[in-house]
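Worked example 2:
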Amino acid sequence: MKKKLRKEIIEIRNSIPSLERKKKDLRIMKKLFTIPEFKKAQTVLFYASFRTEVNTIGMMKESLKMGKRVVLPKVDKDRHKLNLYQIKDAGELSPGYSGIPEPFLPNERLININEVDLVIVPGAGFDYSGSRLGYGAGYYDALLSNMQKKIPFIALAYEEQLVQSIPSELYDVKVNMIITDKQVIKIT
């Protein structure tokens, strides 16, 4: 069921024309930058956008200009976990796991998840209760379930990625907010 839904949502997302996606990306970025949760955060965990995901590269660059500490994940396939690294420039990313841009940095730049103030979570689709349809590997669920402090988990999505219901398991981590090109959905 999840696999079929993921495929359908990604096909819809892929069908959004490139120019339209760029306009939507800008609207999403403006919304993100105006919410109190983002303004207050000093350390933000972003994901590096891949293929037709909401483009986060510009958001990372702007966040660095604002003086925020920007953190990105790198997949450790052997341990089935995400390692987090502080980046100082978007140019520090290279294709990694499945071709996704990742930081290839020294261990001195490793960051603990509990140092993060805000998490921008990737996903194929989301529903109005905050359930997230990831890409099937469970890396984010494992990472976020280890949080010792309560911080916002925010999804960035095109309106087309919202669905009525996503099947979820007990271990699936929900998002607290979804920012689309048309709305900001706060999940209570």
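The chain has five helices and 13 strands. The first helix runs from residue 2 to 14.
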